[in-house]
Amino acid sequence: MAERKQQLVRDKVSRLVNWGHWFAAFNGLLAIIVGSRYLDTVGYPETLIGWGYLSLSSIGQFSFLAFMVYLLLVFPVTLLLPYSKILRGLAATVATLALCLMLYDTIVYDDYGMHLSPFAFDLAWADLNALLHGTSYIITPLAIIGLELTAANFLWKRIDKLQKRKIGPKVAGFIAVCFISSHLVHIWADAADVKDITRFDDVYPLFYPATAKRFMENHGLDALAEDLPHEQQQQLQYPVNPLQCQKEQGAKVLLLTIDSLRADMVTEETMPFLSIYARDNQQFSQHYSGGNQAYSGLFSLLYGLQGSYLGNNAFAGQSPLLTRELARQGYSLARFMGETNDQLPQKLGIYDDFSAFISDDSRSSAAADLASIQSFRTWQADQTGPWFALLNLSAPENYDTPVGFSGTATISAPEELKPAQRVLFNQYRQSLRFIDASLQSLLTSLDDDIVVIITGLNGKLFTSNQTEARRDLSPQSVRVPLVIHWPGEPAARITHRTSHHGLVPLLMTRLLGCSNAITDYSAGRQLETPSEQQWVYVGDNRYFAIYQNDEVTVIDRHGKYRIYDGEFNQRLKKKMSAPELIQVMREGRRLYKH
């Protein structure tokens, strides 16, 4: 008798488990429907093979998610409380909550470009009123739970018929084939760089498709894996609208960029010539680079965009709109720099419109700087029309000076510096004095009708640890001078906060006669008037800081953040300021096609 009772219980549990599998399959179908909203954000495939892959991955991924929800939250209850009424109500409630969570995730992804996480949830919670509007957030869950209860009862009443037809294994096999096939197709697409497939890598939640790199590493083919593309890409709309520019009378422009030039070191003691030159021209006293490295600073300077776009390989084939328009209007463009900055760590088309004059800096960056200045002098003497020159000097990055250079007297280093940093401090000052002397020699020999722009690509942290320097986003690493000599204009001291992102709009409007809204081709910053945005983005796509009026928020690509006071002296125990961060996230997605 007891044995028969146990058999009945086993049969009942088996029936409930079978029903649970069908209910999970039904919710996988609903998840596919809800998940189609992600495609409204990133766009649909443009090829047949893209549609095929998307179909396989959608069926496999959302069915997998539905089954995992069942396995973790419903299946254990089936074993503990094998009662159909309780189980149907519980499963319908769990499925409703899961689908509502996914629906909310689609809204967050559409607005911020990221899936739900503790970081994204904090951000979205502060912006809840903007994300959820109307009465849909009340009606939708009610509609879903009604549908779930109906489906749960419908499947329970027909579970015996479904078992007799033996179609369950076929459905499970089909889903398994879709899941496995999607990963195999992605391995091939990753190796062949098929963008219409790989651009969907981060679209679905908890989706980690197999890559050729990972596959090769697992099979001992690490060397081959190094050269394969792996970044998910989205299509850019750059500019947002076609440029409307009227050809102006040509000018002569020298953009003079200096690696590792801190704003607080442009003093009469260290850089006397540049200090006087700044006072006699337009001096921007609260200026920030767009990054703490030379390449990210240069990106913000010539593209006018925040560094979050650095991760998109679309810029490998797109030169800055500024240099494109200069070339279109008949300017000669040339760049003069050492080999180190000629080889950027990320693929960019930033130099595509320039003729290149590269100096050997393998032995001395200071010697390379002198060679670059001489190359510029020779090139400039041959120009008969309008021109735009990018002259980059890099000696301060390596604390370098030429052999035999007689520098400036050492001074007491700031007290907060450690002993090793104090040595670097005075070596840095010697390098800056060399740069100052080079600027004096060059600029005093130029005609007054040349537009001269002098700035630092990044600041300088006194350390020999390159990892520490790359991670540092303090004012010492990002506050740089900006001095502009505009022929015929009086000296001025601009005290509102500015950034590298404002140079492109200035040149596009004043030099090239472009009438577009500046947000069509840049981050929308101005140099001459205060920005409406009360923050400045500094960094790249993996590690960045948001500078606000009285605090600095440093964020990594995993969403971990730390908040410091405005001078970066003390870490603050507080939540991040969501409104500014929301603006940052939206600006970082504004140029992507939806």
Uncertain regions spanning at least 5 consecutive residues? 215-233
Oligomer: single chain
Q: How does the helix and strand content classify structurally?
A: alpha/beta
Radius of gyration: 30 Å
Please tally the β strands and state the result. 15
How is the main sheet built?
A: 8 strands, mixed
Sheet-strand content, in percent, reads: 5-15%
* Arithmetic mean pLDDT: 87
Q: Using the alpha-carbon principal axes, give the shape.
A: elongated
Treating each run of at least 4 consecutive H or I residues as one helix, how many helices? Answer: 22
> Largest beta sheet: what is the strand line-up?
5-4-6-1-7-8-2-9
Helicity, as a percent range:
40-55%
Distance between the termini: 66 Å
